[in-house]
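Consider the following input, taken from an annotated entry for Glutamine synthetase (Cucumis melo).
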Amino acid sequence: MAQILAPSTQWQLRTKLTSMSSSPITPKMWSSILLKQNKKGAVKSSSKYRVLSVKSVGGTINRMEDLLNLDVTPYTDKIIAEYIWIGGSGIDLRSKSRTISKPVEHPSELPKWNYDGSSTGQAPGEDSEVILYPQAIFKDPFRGGNNILVICDAYTPAGVPIPTNKRHRAAEIFSNKKVVDEIPWYGIEQEYTLLQTNVKWPLGWPVGAYPGPQGPYYCGVGADKSFGRDISDAHYKACLYAGINISGTNGEVMPGQWEYQVGPSVGIEAGDHIWCSRYILERITEQAGVVLSLDPKPIEGDWNGAGCHTNYSTKSMREEGGFEVIKKAILNLSLRHKDHISAYGEGNERRLTGKHETASINTFSWGVANRGCSIRVGRDTEKQGKGYLEDRRPASNMDPYVVTSLLAETTILWEPTLEAEALAAQKLSLKV
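Applying the prediction step yields:
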């Protein structure tokens, strides 16, 4: 009688893994395979070691992922709070974690904390303690559960805001009764560029060379047009989970460049949401092994720069007759053009050249549906006689606390002299 030999357990296991190589193997699937083999009693081993990882075509899955995804909620009331602040450059983000005894709903329930300011360029070594004040809370999309992200601003031990704390001044402006009554809305369009890690060259670009000219990439679809969509989509969902008021996303004109929009947000909330969304994006690109750049002109030449267009309206602008209020606001903005430009991001002069959908940094202009102006007014706003304006001058690396509060200050609180107002009205052809 012929002897029928059954395949070995190892061969069966290898076959299962090979057949599933077209899709990622999760830790749960790996555990299921091992469990089935152990139940059959086919595998006998005296080894005390457990399998830590398995390599497949799709990548490496290891037990650390189980711990990273571990839900501790059933076992403790404690949560992890990730305190986030802005570093010494005014654009770099820093964070560290601490355990909180129970879930919280408001920043006032969280303790103040401190950090070594001499290591972030924000304090001298002989007096390096900087105090973090919790200001806004978001759900943590990385740890899940009741864990939170905490946006903080920074103060000296005496309670004085440090120079890089732009939130403090913004909060003062947004708490002014005139500003509060106008309920300022913001919709911020954050553009960013994804770079390859080692060469700092845009994602999807041939190293040391250039792709085809701009044209097919804006909102493009396809492997030769869209580079980094998974990062954009992951960021989109993570922001929604966190409670950030993200309203959309799209591929940008330069390949490897993306944009997402946050808003409408009211007052100081706009800055909190943009900073938290940037932190989440930094964390996602960190995990993806891609470098995030907010440089306003990452590639010189015939390529679009990266901006942070800021859509803005007040209650008066949104009501009947609002177009006249918008034109008065534009007049004020024209008179403080230099003040705004100086606060709208480092390196912005490389972007605001009058080309690639920008106005010249030295000249203030406005127009209806004109993307080559400093201030753009939409066709719907003109038609309806009310709505909003778009400030196209801010760079991608701007501080949203500065830009949003400066817009409110210039258009609501600041009053030009009659002579300056008349001269500006004549120059801009504004019928006010």
